[in-house]
Amino acid sequence: MTAAGNLRAAGLAIILAWGWKRAAVALVAGALSALAMAPFNAWPVLFVTFPVAVWLIDGAGAGRHRGVPAAAMAGWWFGLGYFVPGLYWIGYAFLVDAPTFAWLLPFAILGLPAYLALFTALGFALARLIWTRDASRVIALAASLTLSEWLRGHALTGFPWNAFGYALTEPLALAQTASLIGLWGLTFLAVAIFASPGVLIDGSSRGRKPWLAPVMALVLLAAMAVFGAVRLSLQPTAMVANVKLRIMQPNLQQDVRFNYSAKAEVMQKYLTLSDRASGPQSTGVRDVNILIWPESAFPFFLTREADAMAQIADLLPKGTVLITGSVRAPDVPPGTRITRAYNSIYVIDHDGSVLSVYDKLHLVPFGEFLPFQDWMEKIGLVQLTKVQGGFIPGRRRRTMEIPNAPRALPLICYEAIFPGDVAERDDRPGWIVNLTNDGWFGISTGPYQHLQQARLRAVEQGLPVVRAANTGISAVIDPLGRTVARLGLGLEGVLDSGLPSAIPPTIYARAGDIPLAIMIASALIFVTRRRAAK
Description:
Shape: globular
Helix content: 40-55%
Distance between the termini: 32 Å
Order of helices and strands: HHHHHHHHHHHEHHEHEEEHEEHEEEEHH
Number of strands: 11
Strand content: 5-15%
Structural class: alpha/beta
Strand order of the largest sheet: 5-4-3-2-1-11
Radius of gyration: 25 Å
């Protein structure tokens, strides 16, 4: 049998599959699709798994109600297969305090993927509603899955982790298209490109040219690569004059970072490591003018510990500032018991004065707050950080003034995964500083995925990203996504670098998701007309 015959036979077998066989096919296809994400970046696998999605929806037509429930079920199994291996690392966080949280581990590694898979199910169901019998059904799937992925990124505070568009971010040349259409536009293109081989089983009868769709997909992929390569070649990395950064990566374990009795140990490590010589000519922290420490760096309220502030002032030479994460107490009358706090970033001058404060706006569900917080606490549940009442969200996203450097946009932890919430158009910063603590997730794929998503924010906005992570991966990334400096996962050390210069606002930075809306509307009009013509 020829290759075309084998493909057609495989496609027909999936179309005709039912029951547990159909669920198993969807589950395996979804699981293999997770290989397209960091650190594997094996995106060609999607040329195999996304056609399976097309055939599963084709086969759903034999079910009741126009096949919509059957398509949704196939989508749910596909999503479950995708999210379990893609997000297994979340389980590590429940082992940091195993006596308290280990019993929740199965709910974390299965419950969250089961919930997220509902959005994939919705995408498959929407696709089935507008499904066609020709190659245009690939466009129907692309539009529907993009809409459901966008909804996943926004519903109930949103969780756009490992959106399908990230498959087109490695190699870096492909990621440059995000400067035009952002993550959600990349998601549309990714689904359309990788699902296109699914129509090869249609045959060439009645004037059909099933090979045309995958050929056009390959041409589009090549055009993206050429555009990206040209963009990268025309805009080499430039540095801001007279700005020298030092990122301190302490690689502290979680049980130390949240233990007040370890205060002296934590401070001594930070101070010693920050002043470490990084080369034969280095004089430690005196070589830099911006020192950066990671998210929630201290097991105490920093500004309420005079000795810690004095130690920081002693460390910093004149003209050097510290950007650090810290839990911040709310402003309450003296003697008031503090139960809640902000997750914040401070800018501290060489004399120990606080120049600027940013409070995290987008909190992590179950990590920093609980849905229905009061009710859940009454039945004995607490979030991973164990802050009674949950963290207090900040009021607005804004830039921070940094002496002798461009204004910075602060993003704490997973705030960097939300493409639409990065930069205010009337308050454009010169760089993004992302402080995070991925130590919750151990040596796993999670920190690599987090870095991949932060890097795409640089490409989308045309802004450099400076990332300080407790256990790694710390990095300095230029506005086109090139890594200028990097300190790997699970390492202790300092990372010295200049600050890359921003470039003019990209099309995506100026227009946001308007190009995406045009793409989706055009796709829906095209598919609707194809359905009407049949």
